[in-house]
């Protein structure tokens, strides 16, 4: 009898354990089912902004959160005057984060912006000029932008002064010059404008050469032995001070023509718009004129004005250069010739000339000069800036 009672109690205990485990299993099942149901009730929305595009297939999409995430497929979009690049998180993005048609997972509500672009073109009529860097320019604008910027190319018409570009074929003056930025809102045709320059007559050019960043004209009356020596000077300048080789045009002109244009009191003359300078050099060789020095001096004027196209202001408008000019023009023991102080432009050009022949290419008559240290240091700052892509932050 006692054994039966024990067996009964064991069976009862086993049955209770089975019932308890069954209840725990069912409870876990129903709790998980409740969690899944709650998860299915969570959803996120994605809104799509045209942001300059013309059409998007869906203005919004929703998805519910599941154990696999909250997934949407990005709709197609179009831009009538350009192309859609994809979608971004900011209206100012130019590079998309996602592509149209891509499936992504949302972790919350989101606004996605269509990222798109369009191109404008500048076409330049080059039918009557001798040289141009490029006759077609392209620029890109993005999203809600309505314009973009191009930098206009250099052009040359032999024997003429560049007067810029115009939208009119018959214009006598341009409204914008080469190397300047031009903002456009649509495709445009530009016409190079040129005319007889300070030259009172057109020079009779026999040769045209491209050298570094300059175009060289040689007048017919300029003898070969003279202009070849001039070319050797340019080779030296390009080796020791390449930032000076930025003139748009260098003309070697015979004595008679040079006298007719400029008078007989000059060896070289620099002229033209600030960002498109021209240099005339007397084609002569006399023992009392330093033609190499003249070329460095005149090309320094071009450097001064070219510097302004890159940084926004001339070397000669910098406070440290102005301070040097004012300091030395008022003392009796001037480091340079008196003519150097006729203007700050002449001061800067002679600064470079004396520096060139004292430190870069030492030459008798220059290297013996007592070159003031403050002039040297200030000039070296602007040489450093010019050699480093006109980045002023790396040169002190």
Question: What secondary-structure arrangement, pairings included, does this model have?
Answer:
Blueprint lengths: L1 H39 L2 E7 L5 E2 L3 E5 L6 E3 L3 E2 L4 E6 L14 E3 L4 E15 L6 E2 L3 E7 L5 E4 L3 E2 L4 E6 L14 E4 L3 E8 L9 E7 L2 E6 L4 H17 L8 E6 H8 L5 E4 L6 E6 L7 H21 L7 H11 L14 H17 L12 H15 L9
Parallel strand pairs: 1-8, 8-15, 17-18, 18-20
Antiparallel strand pairs: 1-3, 2-5, 4-7, 6-8, 8-10, 9-12, 11-14, 13-15, 16-17, 19-20
Task: Describe, in short, the structure shown.
This protein has 396 residues and is an alpha+beta fold.
Overview of the structural elements:
The chain has 396 residues and is α+β, with helices and mostly antiparallel strands. It has three domains: 43-116, no CATH class; 120-195, no CATH class; 205-394, Collagenase (Catalytic Domain) (3-Layer(aba) Sandwich). Helices cover 32% and strands 27% of the residues. The protein has seven helices and 20 strands. Strands 1, 3, 6, 8, 10, 13 and 15 form a seven-stranded mixed β-sheet that branches. Strands 16-17-18-20-19 form a five-stranded mixed β-sheet. Strands 2-5 form a two-stranded antiparallel sheet.
């Amino acid at each position: 009898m006692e054994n039966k009672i024990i067996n009964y109690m064991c069976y009862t205990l086993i049955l209770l354990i089975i019932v308890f485990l069954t209840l725990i299993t069912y409870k876990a099942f129903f709790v998980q089912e409740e969690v899944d149901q709650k998860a299915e009730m969570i959803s996120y929305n994605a809104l799509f902004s045209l942001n300059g595009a013309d059409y998007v297939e869906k203005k919004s999409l929703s998805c519910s959160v599941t154990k696999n995430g909250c997934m949407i497929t990005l709709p197609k979009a179009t831009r009538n005057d350009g192309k859609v690049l994809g979608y971004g998180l900011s209206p100012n993005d130019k590079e998309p984060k996602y592509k149209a048609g891509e499936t992504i997972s949302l972790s919350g509500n989101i606004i996605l912006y269509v990222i798109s672009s369009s191109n404008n073109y500048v076409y330049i009529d080059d039918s009557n000029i001798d040289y141009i860097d490029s006759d077609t320019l392209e620029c890109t604008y993005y999203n809600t932008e309505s314009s973009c910027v191009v930098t206009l190319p250099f052009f040359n018409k032999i024997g003429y002064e560049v007067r810029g570009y115009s939208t009119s074929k018959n214009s006598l003056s341009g409204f914008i010059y080469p190397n300047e930025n031009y903002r456009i809102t649509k495709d445009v045709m530009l016409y190079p404008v040129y005319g007889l320059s300070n030259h009172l007559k057109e020079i009779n050019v026999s040769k045209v050469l491209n050298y570094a960043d300059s175009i060289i004209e040689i007048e017919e009356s300029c003898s070969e032995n003279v202009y070849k020596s001039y070319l050797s000077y340019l080779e030296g300048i390009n080796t020791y001070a390449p930032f000076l080789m930025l003139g748009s045009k260098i003309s070697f002109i015979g004595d008679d023509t040079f006298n007719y244009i400029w008078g007989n009191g000059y060896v070289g003359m620099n002229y033209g718009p600030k960002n498109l300078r021209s240099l005339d050099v007397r084609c002569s060789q006399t023992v009392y004129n330093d033609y190499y020095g003249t070329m460095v001096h005149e090309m320094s004027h071009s450097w001064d004005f070219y510097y302004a196209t890159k940084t926004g202001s001339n070397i000669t408008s910098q406070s440290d250069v102005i301070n040097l000019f004012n300091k030395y023009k008022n003392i009796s023991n001037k480091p340079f010739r008196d003519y150097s102080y006729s203007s700050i432009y002449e001061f800067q050009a002679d600064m470079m000339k004396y520096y060139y022949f004292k430190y870069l290419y030492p030459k008798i008559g220059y290297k013996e000069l007592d070159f003031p240290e403050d002039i040297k240091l200030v000039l070296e700052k602007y040489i450093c800036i010019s050699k480093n892509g006109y980045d002023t932050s790396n040169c002190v």
